[in-house]
Design goal:
This protein has 229 residues and is of the alpha+beta class. It is built from ten helices and four strands. It has two domains: 125 residues, no CATH class; 63 residues, Winged helix-like DNA-binding domain superfamily/Winged helix DNA-binding domain (Arc Repressor Mutant, subunit A, Orthogonal Bundle). Strands 1-2-4-3 form a four-stranded antiparallel β-sheet, covered by helices on one side. The N terminus is likely disordered.
């Protein structure tokens, strides 16, 4: 069991599986999520204290993060895909109250993989992000494994999709039409043999694996952060 967060010095490397344990225990929540450069940042705040560990919807969300499609999960549970999406969104809302939860931050996807024993690189903690005080837990986004397999344009689209952008947002940012973006995504999915955003994220993670994560049977780094402000 992970210890609760307390005031203290900013720590060094942080195991992302620790972050997942803290979130599902209700001890912390995400106050804000940002992307800067090739990193994903999450500012933490005290959680509600409501433990989601035994919530069946949490298991659904974890399976989506690990690459299962909502269609497969809907078939297994004899419900509609919309029901699966709603249950997952409810868990995300508990993690990040009051925020946009239709697309989970990549940081959470990586944290779930780490919690399931995948050798995700450690994160770090910064005092600020773009001038905003922290602490900000952040990690490098796993783009490296995709760059050699996609054209420069496709890689740019894949990067934005992994960050959580909608198709229309990608088109706007790249100054192209939504149809062009859709065609590029179809090409990306075909080249990488994935069926959507969730599987693309998994492909990116497994293409950027490191051997620096702490083995699952060892205690993760337990940072002492002041998140009371």
């Amino acid at each position: 069991m992970c210890a609760p967060l307390v005031a203290g010095p900013v720590p060094g490397p942080i195991e992302l599986r620790w972050l997942w344990a803290e979130l599902i225990s209700g001890r912390v929540a995400l106050a804000e999520v940002r992307h800067a450069g090739a990193r994903c940042y999450a500012r933490l705040r005290p959680g509600s204290g409501d433990c989601l560990e035994q919530d069946p919807a949490l298991q659904l969300l974890e399976r989506v993060f690990l690459g299962d499609t909502q269609k497969v999960l809907a078939y297994e549970h004899d419900v509609t895909g919309a029901t699966i999406a709603t249950r997952c969104a409810n868990v995300l809302e508990a993690f990040a109250p009051g925020q946009e939860v239709s697309r989970a931050p990549m940081l959470l996807v990586m944290a779930v993989h780490a919690a399931h024993g995948v050798a995700i690189a450690t994160a770090r903690c910064d005092d600020s992000c773009a001038g905003e005080p922290g602490p900000w837990i952040n990690c490098e986004l796993p783009f490296a494994g995709l760059q050699q397999r996609l054209s420069p344009c496709e890689f740019d689209v894949a990067r934005l999709l992994i960050e959580g952008k909608r198709h229309s947002e990608i088109a706007t940012l790249r100054k192209t039409s939504v149809r062009t973006t859709a065609n590029q995504l179809a090409s990306i999915f075909s080249k990488l043999r994935v069926s959507g955003r969730a599987q693309l994220r998994c492909k990116a993670i497994f293409g950027s694996l490191t051997n620096t994560a702490t083995p699952r049977n060892q205690e993760p780094t337990l940072p002492a952060l002041d998140i009371t402000a």
